[in-house]
Specification:
mainly alpha, two-stranded antiparallel ribbon, 19 helices, SRP68_N_sf, nucleus, RNA-binding, endoplasmic reticulum signal peptide binding, ribonucleoprotein
Length: about 575
């Protein structure tokens, strides 16, 4: 901005930071609105003295001091801001002291809110007229929408209040994404204050036959879809501010840290694409599928930018090579691997999310198998990335992921075969899935994973749960197979059911052969024998003892009786 041939900085005002510090320091920490109103008056007096906006003499009549045609000092914005804050604090003070039955006081409350909204609107107009920074313009516009929302809500104009609240919330959501940590916290804190008012206005509109949404995100989405006045221009300004903030941060982004490695990033276009993809991935959205599509699109652009940077580098190094150019090429390949990995990993997350949805809705296993085919294809693409092939730990992680997803693919294929009654194939597939899980667990015990982004992280707990799932479903398949075999022997089972071995209504036929059985019919045979037979005592074979042998006497020497000489025997 140039004034009188001299270049001046654009007007800058951080509304949330200024108002939050002032409110918390001077009374509103304890809901003391009177003290805060007095502080605003004193601060306005000091600002006017510095800017030369005071009255010349108390004896002369009041003359309104207008702002100069060209404003170069941001303190003029502070004057309008604290005039609005003073009127708002006065309205809140009277609102706390009044009751709902005092109509006169309510009139004064509305009057003060109207004055606060008027000063806030003037603040927005001055910031836009004098080309303040884009972020400042949006910040004061959100503040003006918030003050107008307070006014319309006090006047019980619910639809207009809802429009202003939604506009303010939309701006703060965008500013939170394009801010540092402190400003992001302030934006989210203000959003938390706005949400109850949005919900109350929606409730009052529902009571009068209007909208019926209860969730804040649904209400805000519905209001945006209605294309409220000025919402299209607001969206354009928000996109411009987000792009400007992203470009500024991309200039400050000089390196990428991933998997405990940090490399330099000098390509501005590549840094811009990666930063945009990171912001899109961190953004929250209602529909999971839509969120994944936006994230995949952003990472696809980042991968495309990385490929373009590598191609330009190859063309440059084809003419002249140096030690520095080799390092630059290696860094670009690392950035390409980072972008491509995020693209493939997000695609895997999307397919797994769709698979879970199909399982919950009771869909066909064939549809789930197709999704797992895409998952395995993406895992294979990750394994072919340049950096992965030179990193043993990374390569082992990809192999574990491949085994894990192959196991789950076998599980769902087995479910498909089980639904067709082909239990032999089902059991074979469960055995194959168990082998995959066993191999994955053995590989996981040999490495220390370095996947710090949390996109695809296969843990021992997940492998153990999958193992239990395989065992449980395999037992169910075994049981189904046995039931199927039982249906094939239905005739034998029916005959066995007809045989009643427990009921004994009559004496066994073998014990009364001399009597004709009166119960013999064509369908039921008589009781033939007792089964199992009853044990009965029977006579035992006698035991004989040869006692006479004990009284037989033998000679002392058999050789003497034979007449041989005992000594000549040797």
């Amino acid at each position: 901005m140039e004034v009188d041939g001299q270049e001046h900085l654009a007007l800058d005002l951080d509304v949330l930071n200024v108002t939050n510090e002032s409110r918390q320091t001077y009374g509103l920490r304890h809901q003391d609105y009177e003290r805060y109103r007095q502080y605003c008056s004193q601060h306005l007096r000091r600002l006017r003295q510095v800017l030369g906006q005071t009255q010349s003499s108390a004896s002369k009549p009041y003359q309104k001091k207008e702002f100069p045609d060209e404003i170069t000092d941001s303190r003029y914005l502070h004057v309008l801001l604290f005039q609005s804050e003073r009127a708002w604090a006065y309205a809140m003070e009277m609102k706390r002291e009044s009751s709902s039955t005092e109509s006169r006081k309510h009139h004064h409350i509305v009057k003060r809110f109207r004055r606060a909204a008027l000063y806030a609107s003037q603040l927005s107009e001055v910031a836009e007229k004098h080309s303040a920074e884009k972020r400042t313009q949006l910040d004061v516009k959100a503040y003006a929408s918030l003050m107008n929302g307070y006014l319309k809500m006090e006047e019980q104009k619910w639809q207009e209040a809802l429009d202003h609240y939604v506009a303010a919330r939309t701006i703060y959501e965008t500013l939170a994404k394009a801010s540092n940590a402190h400003q992001e916290t302030l934006c989210h804190s203000t959003i938390d204050e706005i949400d109850p008012s949005i919900r109350f206005c929606a409730h009052m509109l529902r009571s009068s036959g209007g909208t019926s949404q209860h969730d804040i995100d649904d209400i805000v989405s519905a209001m945006r879809d209605k294309s409220a006045p000025g919402m299209d221009l607001l969206e354009a300004q928000l996109a411009e501010v987000a792009a400007h903030s992203r470009q500024k941060r991309a200039q400050e982004m000089t390196s990428i840290s991933w998997r405990h490695n940090t490399v330099e990033l000098r390509n501005a276009e590549l840094a811009m694409s990666i930063l945009k993809a990171q912001e899109t991935a961190q953004a929250e959205s209602g529909n999971d599928v839509d969120r994944f599509d936006e994230v995949l699109s952003a990472w696809a652009e980042a991968e495309k930018a990385a490929k373009k940077a590598i191609k330009e580098d190859e063309e440059a190094t084809a003419k002249v090579k140096s030690s520095k150019s080799a390092e630059t090429t290696q860094n670009l390949h690392f950035c390409y691997t980072y972008a491509a990995y995020n693209l493939y990993a997000r695609s895997i997350q999307r397919n797994l999310s769709l698979a879970k949805t199909i399982v919950k809705e009771g869909g066909r296993p064939q549809d789930i198998v197709k999704l797992y085919d895409d998952v395995l294809k993406n895992v294979g693409s990750i394994g072919e990335l340049p950096t992965v092939q030179h990193d043993h730990t990374f390569e082992q992680e990809v192999e574990i992921q491949s085994k894990y997803f192959k196991a789950w693919r076998c599980i769902h294929v087995a479910d498909a075969y089980s639904s067709l009654g082909r239990y032999a194939e089902t059991l074979g597939l469960f055995d194959l899935a168990y082998n995959y899980i066993s191999q994955a667990r053995a590989s996981l015990q040999q490495i220390t994973p370095q996947n710090d982004d949390g996109l695809i992280n296969i843990t021992e707990k997940e492998l153990q749960e999958t193992d239990q799932t395989i065992r449980g479903r395999k037992c169910k398949a075994h049981a189904a197979w046995y039931l199927e075999q039982g249906e094939q022997t239905e005739d034998v089972s029916r005959k066995l059911e007809d045989m009643d071995l427990d009921e004994v209504d009559e004496v066994a036929l073998i014990k009364r052969l001399d009597n004709y059985p009166a119960s013999m019919t064509a369908k039921r045979l008589p009781h033939l024998v007792d089964f199992p037979p009853v044990f009965q005592p029977i006579p035992m074979k006698p035991m004989l003892f040869d006692l006479a042998l004990n009284h037989v006497e033998y000679p002392e020497s058999l050789s003497t009786r034979s007449g041989k000489d005992q000594a000549s025997g040797g």
